[in-house]
Amino acid sequence: MIHDELKHFDRYSELFPSVYNYLTAGKHLNLEEGKHEIDENTYVLCNNYQSRIPENFVCENHHAYIDFQLVLKGSEIIHYGDLRKMKRTTEYDTENDYELFDSVHRHSSVVMNEMNFSVFYPGECHQPGLAVNDNPQYINKLVFKIKI
């Protein structure tokens, strides 16, 4: 997992060149909600939603894509944890590249403020979209999906 501010993204430009080029060209500005193809290995989802108060720890994991999550407006918490300490609650959906897990074990959290990004690799289970201080708010976020 990587967590940083967008102003430091040049440190990671060689790891995620398609995302870097897309963002530095300003193509993300005023992006409409939905899925947008970047190249044959990368697309971006523009999401607008209300953060939520979690009732339990249910996280997602991906096999075929890296999740690069960038908050443009609002703040949210992302819980994440070790798959080895979790119980799978759904079978892997190959078409949508996800499986869900449940856990009673401890997990870690990261606060995603405006212009913060986090990168989750396959095997790094995560639960995004959670309210900061149990105070739901509007979130505008880009999720870049980078094929492995």
Pick out its properties.
mainly beta; 1 helix; six-stranded antiparallel beta sheet; 148 residues; single chain; three-stranded antiparallel beta sheet; Jelly Rolls
How would you characterize the overall build of this protein?
- The protein has 148 residues and is mostly beta strands.
- It has a single domain (2-147), classed as Jelly Rolls (Sandwich), CATH 2.60.120.370.
- It has one helix at 17-24, and strands at 2-5, 34-39, 42-50, 58-61, 65-73, 76-82, 87-88, 99-102, 108-112, 116-120, 124-130, 138-147.
- The strands form 3 sheets. A 6-stranded antiparallel β-sheet has the order 1-10-5-12-3-2. A 3-stranded antiparallel β-sheet has the order 4-8-7, with no helix packed on it. Strands 9-6-11 form a 3-stranded antiparallel β-sheet, with no helix packed on it.
- Strand 2 and strand 3 (42-50) form a beta hairpin.
- The longest helix is centred in the N-terminal third of the chain and has 8 residues, at 17-24.
- It is globular and about 40 Å long.
- The model has no long low-confidence stretch (mean pLDDT 95).
